[in-house]
Queue: 4 jobs
Job 1
Amino acid sequence: MFGKIAAANALSDVYAMGGRPIMALNLACFPIDVPVEAISEILRGGAEKLREAGAVLAGGHSIYGKEITYGLAVTGLTTPDKLLRNNTSCAGHSLILTKALGVGIIMAAHRDGEASDKAACAAVASMERLNRYAAEKIAGFNVSACTDITGFGLIGHSLEMAGDSFTIIFDHAALPVLPESLECVNEGWITGGGTRNREYAAKSVNFGETPTSLQEVCFDPQTSGGLLIAVDSAQAGELLALIRADDPAAAIVGSVTALGSHAICFE
């Protein structure tokens, strides 16, 4: 599972830019006492996700180190007219989020037995799911910008989408969240990464009446999170219906407007 999630996370950047992954290199670090069988399973998980993506594993590099580290360097292809950027939003476009939020909080709580196995399984299933299927639906739609939600959380990556010219408006009631993530926040589970994200970005956000628990989920770092897609509002419903065939948690979560008092506002 570690290998699958790491590969899905690495592949996500290519999908977020409108690309098709074609090859990857393993980058691995293992303590000398890790069983060979465990190393084999991690590498097998990564290879399985690459096959699912239609990409080739071309080799890699491995070293000894103090803790297990595994990722991939991915190469993809696209054409200039199909390249998607994260800072080219258009006012009036709607925002689609393709995966539910909260994986960092859920997994941190589960490690201490505070989140259920069911909640952890939902988080793992989300993390290992490729963004390929959502990305492939974008062709033919008027998409102005796209990014994947990863370490900077929904708020941090939305700031990139807003840039210097726009405000991102979120409907807090429409945001998809993983089961038990809000309850975990209410029990005191806030990740260190989420705290750093809040310290960096809070001044740029007007949360309005958004519950504090949901605010923390929006700052929560995501591993292999979903795509945030800015698409012509007239086409948003049609694109969402296509995406939901493979990503049922996907939702229209907001819109892009002209720059207001804050880069990000919640309604």
Job 2
Amino acid sequence: MSLGRSEKQEPSATAGQMVLVVDDDRGLTRLIQRALEREGFRSTTASTGEAAQSWLMTQHADLMLLDLKLQDIEGPQLVERLVSAEKCPPFIIITGQGDERVAVDMMKRGARDYLVKDVDFLQFVPAVVRRALEQLDKERRLAEA
């Protein structure tokens, strides 16, 4: 159903939330960023683990999309550093094919989900991000109740 000009769409609980995309493939990060922004999310990118860690020391992300294999640090080590500094946002792992076992291990360490970079990857990113943020919002509201 399409909305007419006079009808207002209810803003999503996840609209405007900040997503940090951490991947060393700058072309892919731009595509992910555009896909997220089209869906109403704010986003920023980091191409190294060090850049992501520096950004998170002074900024807040509601969710982080994290590639498992960065040029300067592996995803699990970055998560450990961020947890130690108490600066680790909820995160979703993005991984190349063949890394699913490591991604599942990261789920055990707190990842909200994981996405395999395949041909359909970009079309799934906004929905997976929205679902994770909605779940986090529900958990926050339950904790407050």
Job 3
Amino acid sequence: MSSTTSPRVHIGEIIRNAVLFNPANPQEILMNPDILIETVSRFFSVLRERQIDYVLVGGIALLQYVEGRNTEDIDLIMALSALERLPELQLESCDADFARSKFGDLRVDVLLTSNPLFDEVRKRYTTTRRFVEQDIPCATLEGLILLKLYALPSLYRQGKFARVGLYENDIATLIQVHNPPIQPLVQKLVAYLEPSDLTHVEQIVEEIQERIRRFEERS
């Protein structure tokens, strides 16, 4: 998908719509979802004004490459030191790899650069993409696939079936639409996954590629 021919992604509207159509959300948010558009714009303005080093990942970043993804939060790769320069973020939880926080009613999940793979994506798999709000550093197609493949073994162990299905579908869609060289990305994970987890990832990739072949044969 070319950013020069496709409509720009409006992050605020994507999040507002996802929140609005999720009846499980608190009533006070559902009564005034439009405020999220302003909150998103203000959040990225704060990141720019303070010259925070970050990379957009997750569902919003995915929309630069494929259509139809729905998400209520913003996912960033960021250093803990950068996170500490954002006192407006209300930290809900934090461990060695992840921090969950809120900026007003906007959920912001942070992948911390203390994780070597997250830092690798920040350094080597980042590009600047144009969104309605502003130009934003965003994970490349390859960076997004790396992050999702890396996460899958842990999600399987945790029994998070819905998220496993979502991630595998994201990977399959990215591969089917863009056809990136996938084996070099799998090999990149050798440095970041245990051998048993790497074997699991290889099996997942084979299954995804087989699904794509069946789909294309029947199209």
Job 4
Amino acid sequence: MKESRPRLKGKILKAYKNLIKDENRVLVIGDQHEPFTLDGYLEFCKATYHKYNCNKVVMIGDVTDNHFASYHESSADGLGGGQELDLAIKKIAKWYKVFPKADVLLGNHDMIIMRKAQTSSVPSKWIKSYQEVLEVPG
């Protein structure tokens, strides 16, 4: 028996053709600095992804801010390290829900903790992976 397929028209046909093309339409997301991301940035990125029929997401670094660990002066009224990390994990979970297959590069803010561990001569075996700390599989 021959399998039938519905006929696609207009915007639906265009979207379908974009999805089956062998090309990448990449949404590049940079500098979230969680937990201090600009209000509306996630919604903007999600809308942009759909508007341009993107099929790949690359986060180019500074997903976390790690203000508490900065080599620069920190605010005495700022969050403590544990508070900032807990809040960042909650906010990053929202990004992960929207973009579960993103490629994530590490920026200088993401690497501050590793740099401080290195400066303190902490062996790398003591350090958890980025995914494990931020509770994002893969």
